[in-house]
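Re: the request from the purification team.
They wanted to know what the chain is likely to look like in 3D before they choose a buffer screen. I agreed to run a prediction and write the result into the notebook, where they can find it.
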Amino acid sequence: MSRIVIAADLGGTNLRIAAVDEQGNVVHRLRVPTPASHSRADITAAIGDLASQCMGMLGADSRPSAFGVAAPAIVSSADGTIFSSPNLPELNGYDLARELKDRLGLPVMLENDANSAAVGEYWLGASRGVMNSICVTLGTGVGGGLIFDGKLMRGVDGTAGEVGHVTVEPDGYPCGCGSNGCVEQYASATAIKHIATLLKATYPDSELARIEHPSAVEVFEAGQRGDPLALEVFRQVGTYLGIALAGLINVLNPEVIVIGGGVAAGWDLFIEHTHTQIKKRAFRQPGERAKLVRAELGDDAGILGAAKLALESCKT
């Protein structure tokens, strides 16, 4: 009989949980809003209740082997404690893994959500079979995960892969991490809204100039219609993303770079500019070798990656 694990993807807006088997098949899935309070107690209870509900759907004869959780946080590779969670700061310093283990009676593997997405894409998605890859998620922020020699690189503190905090403008926009000019401030959905708002005065004839604070979706849709302001925003997205990726290519020499997240919907608007910067800045051979591909698993990447990590953690 195939082993089954429970996996969760905790986000600032939604909490999703699924039962997943060894082949990556989602047996059951559930989804609820993340508790608005964002308190430790409420989040732990929500995860525990939904996991218990999912376990109940499996029946008494199919007890899961482990529980994997993908969280929007920097996680200690030693014990699973959350160092820092910008979107859920109430969890900073919280040993969420231990609390869930005590509540559910299952081994718990807690991992950063971008790392989990990288594992998911390596297992069943765009980088499957590729031993050396980088996964970049362009969402509210910019996340990253590194797979080398077929293994997730966590670093000594568990912070490896923080692609979003590669500096691309030394005196650029301030970042929530405390630095300035991080690529997250130029290539995320939040960045798209910010840059579009700043550029409105320069493009008074743009359809976006009439919107007080254009959303990332509105900028994307305007870009598809050829709006010059929107096209400039995505030119900057692609340019700064390319600067960051060129540096990573020079340092890490990956075979594939997987790009996912909501901003990847604007692929056709930014990817040419990304390629231009890589060609300009990366060493020729590794720059030509590294293939830029779109993620394949969508919202399931993190939950499947968490499931894979949970399966690996309970191997006997």
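For the purification team: Residues 193 and 215 are 5 Å apart (CA to CA).
Please add any questions underneath this entry.
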